[in-house]
Design brief:
The complex is a heterodimer of chains A (461) and B (440).
Chain A: H1 4-14, E1 21-37, E2 40-58, E3 61-67, H2 72-83, E4 98-99, H3 117-130, E5 138-156, E6 160-178, E7 183-192, H4 197-200, H5 204-219, E8 222-223, E9 225-233, H6 240-245, H7 252-255, E10 277-280, E11 301-306, E12 309-310, H8 317-323, E13 331-332, E14 341-342, E15 346-349, H9 356-361, E16 365-378, E17 383-395, E18 398-404, E19 407-411, H10 412-417, E20 419-422, E21 427-435, E22 438-446, E23 449-459
Parallel strand pairs in A: 4-6, 8-18, 9-16, 15-22
Antiparallel strand pairs in A: 1-2, 1-5, 2-3, 5-6, 6-7, 9-23, 10-11, 10-15, 11-12, 13-14, 16-17, 17-18, 17-19, 19-23, 20-23, 21-22
Helix pairs in contact in A: 1-2, 3-5
Chain B: H1 3-12, E1 17-33, E2 36-54, E3 57-63, H2 70-83, H3 114-131, E4 135-154, E5 159-177, E6 180-190, H4 198-212, E7 221-227, H5 229-238, H6 245-249, E8 270-273, E9 295-299, E10 302-303, H7 310-315, E11 324-326, E12 331-333, E13 337-340, H8 347-351, E14 356-364, H9 366-369, E15 376-387, E16 390-403, H10 404-407, E17 411-414, E18 419-420, E19 425-427, E20 430-438
Parallel strand pairs in B: 7-14, 13-19
Antiparallel strand pairs in B: 1-2, 1-4, 2-3, 4-5, 5-6, 7-20, 8-9, 8-13, 9-10, 11-12, 14-15, 15-16, 16-20, 17-20, 18-19
Helix pairs in contact in B: 3-4
């Protein structure tokens, strides 16, 4: 991509006006997208993301920029231009790099380049075939397949030089059900920091039927009637609650500025005793995993909350300087166009001891949020929301009728204290998280949890 | 990249037509925090998207590598085109007869030094902090300018270019009182640097933040609701796909087959306009080279037309409306300046006469809480309780729910205060008869 000597020369040039730290991030990423609508292949796109970003830190002040030309002249010109922001004598006269071998925790068996278009489209066809004649209420099936093969080179003035290759494969399917009066949609996702073996490992027909069943169930569901109640958030994508309600507010992005509700709270109790929350970038082949983060730092298993006590934030290099907190291998960026910052990887509540049946059994009235949609949070107020895409009422200890259109809102600080039961059935699901450094693959996960006194919105009357 | 050579090679390889779109942008951004510069960013970038028709099907290849191997591009396109099984017809466009003209003006962005722009932000941040001691933090105070040009060249002889420049300022403030934090933001986009008034922006965001303090939830029931213009534009924004010809082809909009029917309140008129005075979203032509123009998408409640690109227009045997804009590589459909036509009276007058109601100023999580296929929405909201026509107290952590079509039939009055959001979707404040609010 770029040779070591050029990297050294460019980083040295970047620091000639007194910068404390310089970093170079180069990537060449090939990605392909395939779309099937009503059994026909409706879109095939290919993309080559190719560029190099340089950033310089002087104290906490960051100067960054990028270009799309990997030549020595072009990189030196960019380094010069960025260094022009400062006017002091060089503190670091010469950068010397030593290449470190990256430990591969995400081995790939079937690289996207080794799978033909016809083979890829066959996966989408299987989903469509599984739903042919499945129900007269299915009005549309749209599936998308995306693969990405990213090669990166990361070098910095501390002498680090690493190269990594990251392969992501993702399949999403959406089913629309309608009965002439009303329409509902449901979607499911499969993904991994892996090649096509991650899709081979799944029963696509079962995924298709599950998606269709969800849409059809919701078609015949009543509208949720809003109010405050006990909510059981099911495992898997339910982990979006932890993601939105809590961990966004533990990212250094907001903590370092003091704008998070959880700033200055290390060592303090911020959640119920039964709550342990983890962000683990080292789970082999998981959707949110990385060998090294986008600063070249090996990923880690970070225990964020242990038995209700706040133990760690998610911290990138720049914010670590400000916060006096070690880096956590959590610095990520969508691509070279974004400056890296602290983000999540695979985030989940640790399993508890409660049984799912017991969690439901002693609820007089509440909501069972079986499948969650996405959500969002404002880290400075901690106020969050997320949508329930498949919900059921709980009445007298039993899951009864389906309800649609429920949205949960609350404040992160409160919801963590209101979790009173955690099951033993930890599961993960795959999402895309959008924040300051772009859209990145993240896993959300949790066992089934019970939350008291949540505000549930809905348009039922 | 030698575009003419690419076109020649494509013909040799058996493509019937090929098109190259080249976007060049030069961007500078600055953020300040706590009285000093936080980050500065700069880049000059070229992105190239090639689309070609092979065997009657069109595939896409995009790259940011200026010297991408031409054979790699064409071979990938050919393989991808051969994988398509859709019955849709594809077209590369030879050009419109004429294009709307916009007065080209120098926005003055490049005449101002970086240091002056930094000072503008520092003044802004200082002013927000100074406004009220309850403002404890300005987590974001940012400026960005974009100077861009887009070029389309194709094998039908089209060779078009357009240029654009604009800048924006984004500022967020956090206020605290009685152990409650609230935050508000303000974003302003201008086509002329001189139009930024940091003092005014500071006052706006500070005022907004302070007004939200000491907010509480609300008893759950159906209230008369006024969506303030920014919340209204964001709500309209998630449902713009209702009006998309692409969504109609995929049967993903409830408006399919309803052209000419009265679908919404007769008070509602929605316009899509190519050139709107001083708008940064103006487009003389879309990403397929089709001229943009003004059209009423909804007129007095009657749904008039979908927005089309070349492909969706062909499907419905009509003409492209000049709304073929790129979304993630391939051409999708998007409005240009897409807005609800304003009425006569301002927000204050809209609130008058409401005995007990809710003014919604912010909506959050619409990407998840609104379903663009069905129109259902259930979104986190905040704003104010209205009593006897006046703002009574701030309200937070409520959920407002409805269905877009049903809601747009409950319009009582449309305000005069049209404003565009960052995606070129505009709305004035609108008063609705009643919507379910969930809270306590």
């Amino acid at each position: 991509m770029i040779d070591k000597l050029t990297c050294q020369e460019v980083l040295t040039a970047a620091l000639k006006t007194g910068g404390d730290f310089a970093e170079l991030f180069a990537e060449s990423t090939y990605s392909n997208g395939y779309e099937m609508t009503s059994g026909k292949v409706t879109k095939v796109t290919s993309n080559h993301t190719y560029g190099v970003s340089i950033r310089i830190l002087k104290g906490y002040h960051e100067v960054n920029g990028y270009c799309n030309d990997f030549s020595r002249e072009s990189l030196l010109a960019l380094a010069d231009k960025l260094a022009g922001s400062f006017t002091e004598e060089a503190k670091i006269k010469e950068v010397v790099l030593t290449e470190t071998e990256v430990k591969n925790i995400n081995p790939v068996q079937r690289y996207p380049e080794a799978v033909t278009n016809a083979e890829k489209i066959a996966y989408l066809q299987r989903i469509d075939d599984a739903l042919k004649g499945y129900s007269p209420e299915i009005t549309q099936v749209i599936s998308n397949l995306r693969d990405e093969d990213q090669k990166v080179l990361i070098a910095n003035s501390k002498g680090r030089l690493v190269r990594d290759r990251r392969v992501h494969t993702f399949l999403g399917t959406s089913v629309v059900a309608g009965d002439g009066k009303s329409t509902q949609t449901a979607s499911r996702r499969i993904g991994g920091h892996a090649g096509y073996e991650v899709i081979d490992a799944r029963d696509l027909e079962a995924v298709a039927r599950e998606t269709a069943d969800s849409a059809i169930t919701m078609l015949h569901a009543d509208e949720m009637v809003g109010g405050k109640m006990t909510v059981v958030v099911h495992n898997g994508f339910g982990g979006v609650l932890l993601h939105e309600a809590c961990v966004h507010s533990l990212e250094a992005t907001s903590v370092a500025k003091g704008s998070s509700v959880f700033a200055d709270k290390l060592g303090e109790k911020i959640a119920a005793d039964i709550v342990t929350a983890i962000d683990d970038g080292t789970i082999p082949n998981a959707w949110g995993s990385l060998n090294v983060d986008d600063e070249g730092e090996p990923t880690k298993r970070n225990v964020l909350i242990e038995n209700g006590i706040l133990k760690s934030y998610l911290v990138d290099y720049r914010n670590s300087l400000k916060m006096n907190h070690p880096v956590t291998g959590s610095s990520r960026r969508q691509n070279y166009k974004f400056s890296p910052t602290s983000r999540m990887t695979n985030t989940f509540f640790a399993p508890g001891k409660d049984k799912f049946e017991d969690i439901i059994a002693n609820i007089k009235f509440g909501l069972f949020a079986k499948v969650m949609g996405g959500g969002s949070v404002n880290p400075s107020t901690g106020e969050f929301n997320f949508a329930v895409s498949e919900g059921y009422l709980i009445e007298d200890g039993k899951i009864t009728k389906p309800v649609r259109g429920a949205t949960l809102v609350g404040s992160g600080a409160e919801v963590l204290k209101n979790i009173d039961m955690i099951s033993d059935n930890l599961a993960f699901d795959h999402g895309f998280c959008g924040s300051e450094s772009g859209s990145i693959p993240t896993n959300v996960g949790q066992p089934t949890i019970r939350v008291q006194n949540m505000t549930v919105g809905g348009r039922g009357k | 990249m030698n575009y003419n050579l690419l076109i020649e090679k494509a013909k040799e390889k058996g493509f019937s037509d090929i098109e190259i779109a080249v976007g060049s942008s030069s961007v500078t951004s600055i953020s300040v925090f706590s009285g000093g510069v936080d980050k500065t960013h700069t880049h000059d970038e070229v992105s190239i998207t090639v689309r070609g028709i092979y065997n009657g099907k069109m595939a896409y290849y995009s790259t940011s590598k200026a010297d991408e191997d031409l054979d790699l591009i064409l071979d990938t396109l050919k393989e991808n085109a051969l994988s398509l099984t859709t019955q849709e017809e594809f077209e590369i466009f030879p050009g419109s007869e004429e294009y709307p003209e916009e007065e080209t003006r120098d926005g003055g962005f490049l005449k101002i030094s970086l240091a002056d722009k930094v000072n503008m932000l520092l003044d802004l941040e200082k002013e927000v902090r100074a406004y009220d001691e309850r403002i404890i933090l300005v987590p974001y105070c940012e400026y960005q300018e974009v100077i861009e040009s887009r070029k389309i060249i194709n094998s039908k002889g089209l060779d078009l270019e357009k240029k654009k420049e604009f800048g924006y300022v984004y500022v967020q403030a956090v206020g605290k009182e009685n152990e409650q934090t609230q935050s508000a933001f303000e974003i302003e986009i201008k086509t002329n640097y001189a139009d930024f008034d940091p003092i005014l922006i500071a006052q706006k965001v500070a005022k907004k933040t302070i007004k939200k303090l000491n907010a509480d939830s609300l008893a759950s029931k159906v209230y008369p609701v006024v969506f303030e213009r920014e919340a209204m534009a964001n709500l309209l924004g998630v449902f713009t796909s209702f009006f998309s010809g692409e969504a109609a082809v995929k049967k993903l909009t409830p408006l399919l087959g309803k052209e000419g029917e009265k679908v919404f309140s007769e008070l509602l008129t929605i316009v899509d306009e190519a050139i709107y005075p001083e708008s940064p979203y103006n487009e003389p032509f879309d990403d397929e080279g089709v001229a943009c123009y003004r059209k009423e998408v909804v007129e007095n409640g009657v749904f008039k037309t979908f927005l089309h690109n070349l492909k969706s227009a062909k499907h419905f045997k009509t003409k492209s409306t000049g709304n073929g804009f790129r979304a993630g590589g391939a051409i999708g459909v998007q409005g240009v300046n897409f807005y609800i036509k304003p009425g006569e009276r301002d927000l204050e007058e809209l609130l008058g006469g409401i005995e007990e109601g809710v003014l919604i100023t912010d909506l959050a999580g619409l990407h998840a809480g609104a379903n663009p296929v069905t129109g259902d929405f259930s979104a986190q909201a905040s704003g104010f309780l209205i009593k006897n026509g006046k703002i009574d107290r701030p309200v937070t952590l409520i959920v407002v729910s409805g269905n877009f079509v049903e809601t747009m039939n409950q319009i009582e009055e449309i305000g005069s205060d049209l404003k565009f959001n960052v995606r070129g979707v505009g709305a004035p404040s609108i008063r609705f008869k009643g919507l379910p609010i969930s809270g306590k």
